[in-house]
Specification:
alpha+beta; Ubiquitin-like (UB roll); five-stranded mixed β-sheet; 5 strands; globular; metal ion binding; electron transfer activity
């Protein structure tokens, strides 16, 4: 089972089941993660900055392609409500703009 490590969230280790979005896997651990639209791919508040393992993610969704084409999603960012981990581990960070005030972030 692939593992996502959120480096600036105390190296939180998230096991991602096949076909499960990263957001669902994070929520299953009980961790809070910004997602203003409710995980429907209608905003970019749930994005993650991928620092390693981008090649292990599933293909970009229509929502991600739309945000990428209009400059709201960088090449090293994915929407946690849309993306899956297909075949390997990955590392990432919560962007500064979407950090929640009650969470303890490092770095």
């Amino acid at each position: 089972m692939p593992i996502l490590t959120v480096q600036n969230l105390s190296d939180l280790k998230v096991k991602v089941e096949e076909g499960q979005t990263l957001l669902k896997a994070i929520q299953a651990l009980g961790a809070d993660w910004m997602h203003a639209c409710g995980g429907k791919g209608r905003c970019t508040t749930c994005r993650i900055i991928v620092t390693q393992g981008l090649e292990h993610f599933g293909p970009l969704t229509d929502s991600e392609l739309r945000y990428r084409s209009n400059g709201r999603l960088k090449d090293n960012e994915r929407l946690t409500c849309q993306c899956t981990l297909a075949d390997g581990d990955a590392f990432g960070n919560v962007p500064e703009q979407t950090k929640l005030p009650h969470m303890n972030y490092s770095g």
